[in-house]
């Protein structure tokens, strides 16, 4: 972003990265998970400034880990509200009352996440919560903030944070109405110190810390089957030809719950290639089935592999009705997710799987498999396991070991 766009704010979208622009579809909570220096603060400050200027008299909340963070980062920081405001619409900070005041009557009050009860009295049209994963008691603060957001037709909340594998974040990600975006530090490289990324890459490349702090992914700890190092090694190019291509589908239990996992993978000799993640959320059975059919056509797949535990033959029926151009193989999960994924994790350790593109949402779910975290179902990762099991293991449910 140019300095002129930062300071004058004449066009609040011009110069912003795609992850810094609010989602087009309806949302109540916009959750921006970003690496260090990815522009999360700028996204939050720009959105809040736009709302305050556009709707005179609006009341907003600013919640940071501490009041010091609210003032030094969210308000007066180099990417804070004062920095992104146009000169003719710049609010003034009233330190004694811990609030920003605009000439059009809009107000934004600052709160510390260290004091959840401070949010019990006031009420707001919307809010910006920064570094959610650094809060001491995120669920209590978020609950009080949500109860205070009771003005207007549809109060909105933007949450910006570098992710950590905490249950509160998992639950927030799984909530209906939450739109999740991810941003790697490299997406904002033009505004970072020269050599910053190269130095951190040298120090932390291929580690969990790189995935969490630089790529903005929720990285699990003990018990996870897929490591950050294995996924970093898996990046590569698609070969000119593939022996076989499949589209694996993990259907959702309902249109309003889990996502429909749709992953495309191929095989050449003894190596598997992950080609695409076309998973989707919130579609009807006809909607996700059409997406599967379109994906199979685009990638010229040889077969569709669909888990049938939830819908049985109905899964096949909706896929056929959607015009799937290839044969459909129904598979049933007779073992738990971890047991099905273990042989696939071994393939990654052996270097026999290549990711032909960046798949942040998929890799995030993969790093959660095996860790008891709760939250939403790993539908993308499940679809990946079905695809690679079918292609690489000779049996869609993976190999079995018989103990004598």
TrEMBL record:
Alphabetical list of InterPro entries matching this protein? P-loop_NTPase, Terminase_6C
User: Any idea which UniProt keywords this protein has?
Assistant: Viral release from host cell
Q: Does this entry carry the keyword Zinc-finger?
A: no
- Protein name listed in UniProt: Phage terminase large subunit-like protein
Cleaved signal peptide residues: none
Taxonomy, top ranks, is: Bacteria, Pseudomonadati, Pseudomonadota, Alphaproteobacteria, Caulobacterales
Q: Which organism is it from?
A: Brevundimonas variabilis
The protein's superkingdom reads: Bacteria
UniProt-listed Pfam families: Terminase_6C (PF17289), Terminase_6N (PF03237)
Q: What residues does the Terminase large subunit gp17-like C-terminal domain cover?
A: 248-390
